[in-house]
Structure formats: C-alpha cells, structure tokens
Specification:
2 strands; Multidrug-efflux Transporter Regulator, Chain: A, Domain 2; homodimer; 6 helices; two-stranded antiparallel sheet; DNA-binding; 131 residues; 2 domains; mainly alpha
Chain lengths: 131, 131
DNA sequence: CTTGACCTTACCACCATGGGAAGGTGTAGG
DNA sequence: CCTACACCTTCCCATGGTGGTAAGGTCAAG
C-alpha cells in the first residue's frame, strides 16, 4: 500500500505520516524500487493507534511512549495508567482555566449593551479601569 | 522608559514586546538617540491592554481588532460584544471537546488495573479493538 | 577606564501541520 | 508509443507565540 492509501485508510494525511516518520515517532517505511513508501497492515495498525492517541489529545512525545508500551509485552499497565492520568490532570487544569475565562467574559458581555454606543465594560476591563 | 522597565511594568517580556511591534500589533516604539526603544505611560497602557487580552485567551489577530476598537471613540459596543461572544463560543467548544476526552480517558483509566500486569483497556482502546 | 547592566538585531528552536514547487513514477487510453 | 493524469519524492516556507543565544553597541557608576 502506498502512502496515499495509508493516509486515507488511517485518517492521517500523507504529510503527517512523513512527518511522523521524520521525527522518529514511527519507524521508516519500507520502500518500493522507485522509492515509494510502502505500508503493511501492521504499519496501518500503528498509524491508527497514533491517530486515536492524537484524538485523545496526547502529545507526540507521549504517543511515542504509548507506542513503546503498546509494543512491549512486558509492560506494566501501571505505566500506561499513570501516563493517562497525568494527561487527564493536565486537561482538567486546562478546562478549569478556560472555564474561568468563559465565566469572566460571558459576564462582561452580559453587561455590555451591544448597541451602537461605544460604552463597553469589556474594553473597560481590558483597559484595567478599576472603577 | 526603556524596554526592560516597560517589560517588568507590563508583565510582557521584552522579547514579546519586540515581537508584537514586529508583527504590527503595537505601533513602533519611539527611539532614543542611541536607538533604544522608549515607552510612555500611554504605551504602557497599551501593553497592559494587550496583556489582559492575552490572559483572556484572545488570539493576536483578535487583540489587534480589540485595540482598534479601544482606540476608536466612534466604536459600537456591539462589535466588541460580538467579538467577545464568538470567542466565548469557541472556548465553550474547546471545553466540551476536552471534557469529552477527560471522560473517556478517566473511564478507561478507572478500568485499568494499574499494576505490573500488561493488560490495559487504555491500550486496547487505542489499538481499536472493538471487543 | 573598566565593569556590569542594559539595549540592539539576527538567527535557531519548539510543536504540529499545511502549502507548494520541482521533479520522478505508474497507469490508462488514444 | 505518447500523452495525460494521478501519485509519489524531497525541499523549503508559513503559521503562533515564545524562549534562547550570540555578537555587538550604550549607559551609568565607581
């Protein structure tokens, strides 16, 4: 299977596949006589694993670890769980941060006339006026 | 006031201030005879405005718009409100997305032994096993 | 005059991805 | 066989923000 086929089957663009290979996230693909990258079913499974990991928001470096664990029959599920939980913790922090911004901004917007007049508590807040 | 002073007063690193100037987010600073950037109180207010906007998660391009509106006495608060609300909507989407990931991942982690054995529903999910 | 803190520009790096150019390859139809 | 056209290759550039660092100029105090 060429890279285009692998891309559409895995849902990862050809561009990204090459990038993942370049940075060593996935091993170098086999090559045809003409130099075309060739992908096996096994390679495809790896790509799908990577894609699902990305969808769950893992960073490339984490996926690299996950891939090692995945391919290691002597892994301990503890390591995987630990990685997942620390990712979850990070996400929860991010959510809280965004939530607090949303609350602030929504509140400001609620008190903004939203008409043709220039007065606006949003700008006032950004300006830092402590009125 | 030199850039170092402006940086520590505004909470934006000198590096970032130069970057903001370079991309045109803020106007070019006045220069001393020796070529040092010089900042007035007014400039400092702008920097603080930018910093607060960043803290609320606005992208640079949006801050550019906010700055124009801020400096436009004939602005309509509608424009500001609209910008804020569309930002809020984007944030809400992002939060939902992250929340869904957290739920999934926490659930998987809950069902992972987290011991020395290799069995792990997290990896199974990433692998795509539909069992 | 020296020292040290500050400033300048200019470059490289990160993460993850998209775009595009310039050129080779593979295949199908005329 | 030739021509299209789809696909592949590598290479460079861009994004958004930021940090780092190097090579050099400036300023104030001692």
């Amino acid at each position: 299977m060429n890279i285009g086929q692998a891309a559409s089957s895995s849902g990862i663009s050809a561009k990204r596949i090459r990038y993942y290979e370049q940075i060593g996230l996935i091993g170098p693909a086999a090559r045809s006589a003409a130099g075309y990258r060739t992908y096996s079913e096994r390679d495809l499974n790896t790509l799908l694993f990577v894609r699902r990991s990305r969808q769950l928001g893992f960073a490339i470096a984490e996926i690299s670890t996950l891939l090692s664990l995945w391919q290691d029959r002597n892994r301990s599920s503890e390591d995987v769980k630990q990685l997942a939980l620390s990712h979850v913790a990070r996400l929860r922090n991010k959510i809280e941060e965004l939530q607090s911004i949303v609350t602030t901004l929504q509140d400001l917007a609620d008190h903004c006339g939203g008409d043709a007049r220039p007065d606006c508590p949003i700008l006032a807040e950004l300006q830092g006026s402590k009125s």
